[in-house]
Amino acid sequence: MRALQTATLLVATLGVGLMAGLFTAFAYAVMPGLRRSDDRTFVQAMRNINRAIVNGWFLLPFLLPIPLLVLAAILARNGPGRIALPWILAALVLYLAGFLVTGGVNVPLNNALDKVPTNEGPAASGGSGDPADRSGDLQAARDGFEGRWVTWNLVRALAHTAAFGVLAWALFLHGTAGTAGTGGSV
């Protein structure tokens, strides 16, 4: 039971940490870098990123922490690591907050941006084929996307980072709970 508790907390902490790192990297590097781009480049780059990120390397650490945190809470409630339970629950709430921001704000913004036409030509633009015909569309799409996306990305980055910190503390407490009366073994 103790080994399962430790493994569950450890893997959940790693997953939460990966998401905290990803979303904070967008906050301090990716989006400030894209801010320097013209509208067409910005829209196309975000579309490419949003399409590429939906893969197992992202989805596993994004989705797995939720059931692992629930399992960790159940195991802590019924096991020797009960001292960590409030921290595990706090991490779950923080992680879910960031998760809900992703699903409720960032993904819908990504989906709306994905529908903006960026290909040149009369069929794509419904106009003369002149790229200037759509420069206003790209600017409007970016204006409706960038500020909100960046703000809400920061919210989820902070939520996931806080969840990571709280979960690291829970893992520490779980480890110290195993040392009492066991001769120091964890």
Keywords:
single chain, 186 residues, mainly alpha, 7 helices, 0% strand, elongated, disordered C terminus, membrane, Membrane protein
Give the topology.
Blueprint: H1 2-35, H2 39-53, H3 56-63, H4 65-78, H5 85-114, H6 122-125, H7 132-177
Protein name: Membrane protein
Organism: Streptomyces caniferus
Pfam family, one: Anthrone_oxy
Architecture overview:
With 186 residues, the chain is mainly alpha-helical. The protein has one domain. It has helices at residues 2-35, 39-53, 56-63, 65-78, 85-114, 122-125, 132-177. The radius of gyration is 21 Å and the shape is elongated. Residues 120-128 and 181-186 have low confidence and may be disordered.
**Mean of the pLDDT scores?**
90
H/E element sequence? HHHHHHH
Beta strands, count = 0
- By helix and strand content, what is the structural category? mainly alpha
What is the chains' assembly state?
single chain
Q: End-to-end distance, in Å?
A: 12 Å
Helical content (DSSP H or I, runs of 4+): over 70%
Low-pLDDT stretches are 120-128, 181-186
Count of DSSP-assigned helices? 7
Main sheet attributes: strand count, strand direction, barrel closure: none
Apparent shape:
elongated
User: How much of the polypeptide forms β-strand, as a percent range?
Assistant: under 5%
Query: What's the structural domain tally?
Result: 1
Instruction: Compute the CA-based radius of gyration.
Output: 21 Å
